[in-house]
Specification:
The complex is a heterodimer of chains A (115) and B (111). Helices cover 0% and strands 49% of the residues of chain A. Chain A is mostly beta strands and 115 residues long. In chain A, the strands form two sheets. In chain A, strands 2, 4, 5, 6, 9, 10 and 11 form a seven-stranded mixed beta sheet that branches. In chain A, strands 1-3-8-7 form a four-stranded antiparallel beta sheet, with no helix packed on it. In chain B, the strands form two sheets. In chain B, strands 1-9-8-3-4 form a five-stranded mixed beta sheet, with no helix packed on it. Chain B has a four-stranded antiparallel beta sheet with strand order 2-7-6-5, with no helix packed on it. With 111 residues, chain B is mostly beta strands. The chains are: A mainly beta (115), B mainly beta (111).
Chain lengths: 115, 111
């Protein structure tokens, strides 16, 4: 257990529905990341927060995706009008700069299945 | 694209050392080498990282060549629970930003 938690662990939804995932980072970590992982591939970066500011977004993050971190603590990732291609594992990671490194610690992920 | 090259798969006998190689010939002077592993259906687990010196922790050792163009992750006494996909990632540590994962090496530890 890294101290990063994600909820739910599994989500099954029908195409066209909206879904929201939550990530709670390690408490003192000010940086939070979202990644997506499809079967047989490594995780791919989606977006990154430093405190409450969203500093970077991947081109993978279409306009159906939105992420927030309103108080600089937990974060939510919402997918609107889900498509079958959104089926994947959604991973959250957090980090805090120490010395000159910034090691990311991952949560267990939320597995989304879109029917 | 990932900045690293790793073998697709490797086997190791239980109790023996597992040596996982990684090539990162385009690494920059301020970039660190990170290793993560991912056991089936779990989130990636941080193992170790280094800049230019060899590093050791309770999980593994990291050997980085003098020219920093390649490295080896060593699991000294592999167990069946070490069966996982191992990712070698190069990233600038000061502002790590996003990690770029390749496909990693699938390590199978066999009894």
């Amino acid at each position: 257990d890294t101290g990063v938690s994600q909820d739910p662990r599994h989500k099954i939804t029908k195409r066209g529905q909206n879904v929201t995932f939550r990530c709670d980072p390690i408490s003192e970590h000010n940086r939070l990341y979202w990644y997506r992982q499809t079967l047989g591939q490594g995780p791919e970066f989606l977006t990154y927060f430093q405190n409450e500011a969203q500093l970077e977004k991947s081109r993978l993050l279409s306009d159906r995706f939105s992420a927030e971190r309103p108080k600089g603590s937990f974060s939510t990732l919402e997918i609107q009008r889900t498509e079958q291609g959104d089926s994947a594992m959604y991973l959250c990671a957090s980090s805090s700069r120490e010395a000159n490194t910034d090691t990311q610690y991952f949560g267990p992920g939320t597995r989304l299945t879109v029917l | 694209d990932a900045k690293t090259t790793q073998p697709t798969s490797m086997d190791c006998a239980e109790g023996r050392a597992a040596n996982l190689p990684c090539n990162h010939s385009t690494i920059s002077g301020n970039e660190y080498v990170y290793w993560y592993r991912q056991i089936h259906s779990q989130g990636p687990q941080y193992i170790i990282h280094g800049l230019k010196n060899n590093e050791t922790n309770e999980m593994a050792s990291l050997i980085i060549t003098e020219d920093r163009k390649s490295s080896t992750l060593i699991l000294p006494h592999a167990t069946l629970r070490d069966t996982a996909v191992y990712y070698c990632i190069v990233t600038s540590g000061g502002s790590q930003g996003n990690l770029i994962f390749g496909k990693g090496t699938k390590l199978s530890v066999k009894p």
